Amino acid sequence: MIFSTVHRCKGMEYDEVTLTNDFITEVKIKELIEKVGIKKLNIPKLSEEVNLLYVAVTRTKNLLNIPAELLPKSSVNAIISIPDMEEEEDEDEPVPSKKYFFEEVRKTTANAYMPWTNEEDEELTRLYCEGSSVKEIAKQLHRGTGAIESRIKKLELKDIYTPENK
Question: H/E element holding 32?
């Protein structure tokens, strides 16, 4: 059994994942809107919280255990969504969304948050074995250094390709 934060397991996969109930929920979002109002809502921070939940639920290969508190109240099949502030008539600023966040990140790191392909895994392994730095590999694969480090760990490259095993 492995206990981990979502940040540490980014890029990793597990047969079974059990979440705690300390993630953002539909109820918490609605309460926050009622408390501070939609105009004062910190959309980028809220987007980060929703993205963190997304990363957590996508770490499993087989079984995902979700506490009932995290399930949307409106529908079991619903997706937690952040209200679109552009619907407000007098709103001047555009709403940063998850899509907007990905587009911004992908301007400098084209494959950020994209699923890994077998070809990329092979290229990562080749570059790692050639002694390329994490920064060099990240540049070559158009990913962030954190994604490269996580993938090296997931593929167990440090264990398999130690100097005595090369």
Answer: helix 26-36
